[in-house]
Amino acid sequence: MRGLPLPLEGITVVAVEQAVAAPFATRQLADLGARVVKVERIDGGDFARGYDTAAGGLASHFVWCNRGKESIALDLKDPRGLDVVRRLVADADVFVQNLAQGAAARLGLDAATLCAAHPRLVAVDISGYGTGGPYADKRAYDMLVQCEAGLVSVTGTPEQPVKAGIPAADIAAAMYAFSGVLAALVRRGTTGRGGPVEISMLEALTEWLGHPLHHTMHGGSAPVRTGLAHAVIAPYDAYPTADGGRVLLSVQNDREWRRLAERVIGRPELGADPAFATNAARVAHRGRTDELVGAALARLGADEALELLEEAGIACARLRDLTEVAAHPQLAARHRWREVGTPVGPLRALLPPITLPGGAQPRMDAVPALGEHTGALLRAVGMTDDEIAALRRDGVAA
Questions:
Q1: 171 and 49 fall within a common domain
Q2: In the listed set 318, 353, 369, which residue is the last one of a domain according to the structure?
Q3: Do both 70 and 131 map to the same domain?
Q4: What percent of the chain has a predicted confidence (pLDDT) above 70?
Q5: Number of independent structural domains in the chain
Q6: Tens of pLDDT along 185-235?
Q7: Do 182 and 292 have their domain in common?
Q8: Sign of the dihedral through C-alpha 202, 205, 210, 215
Q9: In whole angstroms, what is the distance from residue 69 CA to residue 65 CA?
């Protein structure tokens, strides 16, 4: 008996997209069963294809964000190329774009214009700062938005702010675009109308700054940067172990502190010591608190420390590098890895984190080569072989 279908089977998405924000959003849709047609430039395609060659000769960003899509390469500055996109959109359920501010509107591919022509269409504009306002036309690369949204100001050590190690602004915008599309499709199911969706990277990431932002607005001061430590909880940090590892632990309440003092540090009297008995006291004496915990863990290997902490009921984790994450025993035990086809052969990829009931498996089809599906898609919109040959000859399609 066949399991339940994927939720987005039968949905067609057309995306004029580049870099991470829009491609990561549409990859989520593809994983859930949507057909995603990726429109790329003829001169190299999505520029994320050229970021690096780390994934077997392909760019790691591109492999991550673009599986399960069909690639068509077109020159949208040529009216014939733009006409192809309009034909594709006419039969689509969703359109997504993250071109430079104003570029989509000049092409007539902005959400408002497309939804006016196609009332059932869900069309998404992703930009750095949104339409209107003094920042509307600013360039908006991920790290720039991390700075503007204040993420960098709360990340790092007291001496040095740092950016997040992942493209947090892009990912935030992508996930709100993904959820915005799903919400709009649900509304279309009840009203028959799609409509425009607007996503700003700045607004998406600023929403994610919730705790420190509210701490600052309502408490009068920003949380201090504390590296791996927590600004308002102690002990909550990573500590070296005897074998060169690092173990992070978190004490969330005073009962846990008393267990830590007795079973790990070996000094039960610290549980009632006024300098450490409450979280406020431990934060006020953070240096001494960390010395006590650090000395106890420094005598143990990482495995031994984690076992002891688990037995004491203390939340803990191993500080892993990415090679260790790729071999994580929990991911292996839950069978979370698959192989995805690419132009250079199969590559490992993580299953999407949305696990669906009824046996439905996410669609993890191949990462496309540039223009791999151009011919098939041009035929699908009614073009003859002679017309396709003319577009290729004139550099309008590739």
A1: yes
A2: 318
A3: yes
A4: 99
A5: 2
A6: 999 999 999 999 999 999 999 999 998 999 899 988 888 888 999 888 999
A7: no
A8: negative
A9: 10
DSSP annotation of 112 reads H
List, in order, residues 6 or more apart from 350 with CB less than 8 Å away. Answer: 331, 336, 337, 338
- Cβ burial of 25 (10 Å; 0-12, 13-18, 19+) is buried
Residue 2: predicted pLDDT: 58
Pair (154, 243) in one structural domain: no
Query: Which residue, of 272, 298, 318, is where some domain finishes?
Result: 318
CB 237, CB 228: distance < 8 Å: yes
Which residue out of 91, 170, 273, 303 is catalytically annotated? 170
Q: Which residues constitute the domain of residue 159? A: 12-209+329-393
> Does 106 reside within a domain?
yes
**Separation of alpha carbons 303 and 218, rounded Å:** 42
**Tens-place pLDDT, residues 115-146:** 999 999 999 999 999 999 999 999 999 999 99
| DSSP string over 240-301 | E-TTS-EEEEE--SHHHHHHHIIIIIS-GGGGT-TTTSSHHHHHHTHHHHHHHHHHHHHTS-
Whether 290 is covered by a domain: the verdict is yes
Residues near 109 by beta carbon (within 8 Å), at least 6 away in sequence: 16, 85, 89, 95, 97, 99
Which 3 state secondary structure label does DSSP give 75?
coil
Question: For residue 396, what are the contacts with CB-CB under 8 A and spacing of at least 6?
Answer: 42, 74, 75, 78, 80, 81
For residue 226, being part of any structural domain is answered with no
The count of other CB atoms within 10 Å of the CB of residue 273 is 13
CATH code where residue 279 lies = 3.30.1540.10
pTM equals: 0.93
- How many Å apart are CA 50 and CA 4, to the nearest integer? 38
Can 273 be counted among the known catalytic residues? no
According to DSSP, the β-strands at 337-340 and 347-350 are antiparallel
